Amino acid sequence: MTTVRDWGHYSDSRSDLRRASSKVLAKAGIAAMTLLMIGGTAAPALAQRGRDNDDRVCFYKDAQYQGQSRCYRPGDELADLRDQRNEISSIRVFGRARVVVYDEREFAGTSDEFDMDVPDLSLRNMEGRRSWNDRIESFTVVDDRGRGRGRGRGREEDNRTAARDRICVFEDTNFRGRSQCWDAGEEEANLNRTNGWNDQISSIRVFGRAAVDVYREANFRGGALRVNRDIADLGSANFSDQISSFRVR
C-alpha cells in the first residue's frame, strides 16, 4: 500500500484529490505488474528443478562437481572411456539412476556402485588404500528396474539384488566423509587392518536386502548391533566410532 505523507501539500479541491488518487493507483499498478513479472519467472525455475529428477548420472573431471562434465541415462554404457579414462573425480546421481563403475576396460576389474552423489571420489575407497579418484575406465548406468548391464564382466542380468545387497560405511555422520562398501557375505574380522577403519565409522547405509552385524571388538566379539536400515548417526545407538569388526549378511 502506498502512503501519502503530507496531505497539506494538496488543495482541498476534488481535482487535486483525483490527481492524488491517480498517483496512488499508478504506483499500485506498477507493483502489480512487478508481481506478475516475478510470477512469470518462477515457473521456469520450478520446471528446471523438476528436470533434475530425470534419471541420469553425471561425471565431472574435478571434485565438487567442477570441470568438464558428461551425463548418461539408464541403458547407457561405455566399455572404454578412451580420452576420458581416469579423469573422473566426482559423480552426481539424479532420479532412480545408479551407475556401476569398473577400474578396467570392458567392465572388468574391481567394481562399485553409486546411487547417490559423490562430491569427491578420493574419499571413496575401492581396495587397499586406493580410492576411486581418476580410476574409472568403464561403466554402465542402470535404474531401479535393473534396466542396463548388471554388475559383472559384461553379463546381462536384473541386478536389483546382486548389485544392491551391500552396506557402505562413512567416517562422518549423515553419510559424509571417507567411505567404503562391502557386499553381502563379506566380513572384516579386524578393522585395524582395513584402511584404518577401526573405531572410525559414524554412519552406515544399507542397500537391498543386506544387513550388517557390527561388533565393538575385533574377531566379532564384544557388544554387538544388527543394522538393517540406514543410520545417519551411530551415536543414536551408542556405537559411533566404536566398531572394530563386522559381518555383512
Fold and architecture overview:
By secondary structure, the chain is α+β, with helices and mostly antiparallel strands. The chain has three domains: 7-51; 55-161, Sandwich (Gamma-B Crystallin, domain 1), CATH 2.60.20.10; 165-249, Gamma-B Crystallin, domain 1 (Sandwich). It contains one helix and 16 strands. It has one helix at residues 14-51; strands at residues 56-62, 66-72, 77-78, 90-94, 97-104, 108-114, 125-127, 130-131, 138-143, 166-172, 176-183, 187-188, 203-207, 212-217, 221-227, 245-248. Strands 3-9-5-6 form a four-stranded antiparallel beta sheet, with no helix packed on it. Strands 12-16-14-15 form a four-stranded antiparallel beta sheet, with no helix packed on it. The longest helix has 38 residues, at 14-51. The radius of gyration is 28 Å and the shape is elongated. 28% of the residues are buried.
Could you say how many structural domains there are in total?
3
Report the mean per-residue pLDDT as an integer: 77
- By CATH reckoning, the class of the largest domain would read Mainly Beta
Class computed from helices, strands and strand pairing? alpha+beta
Summarize the amount of helix as a percent range: 10-25%
Radius of gyration: 28 Å
Total beta strand runs: 16
CATH architecture of the largest domain: Sandwich
What spatial form do the alpha-carbon principal axes imply? elongated
**Main sheet attributes: strand count, strand direction, barrel closure:** 4 strands, antiparallel
Beta content:
25-35%
CATH superfamily of the largest domain: Crystallins
> Biggest sheet: strands side by side, in what order?
3-9-5-6
Spatial gap, N to C terminus: 66 Å
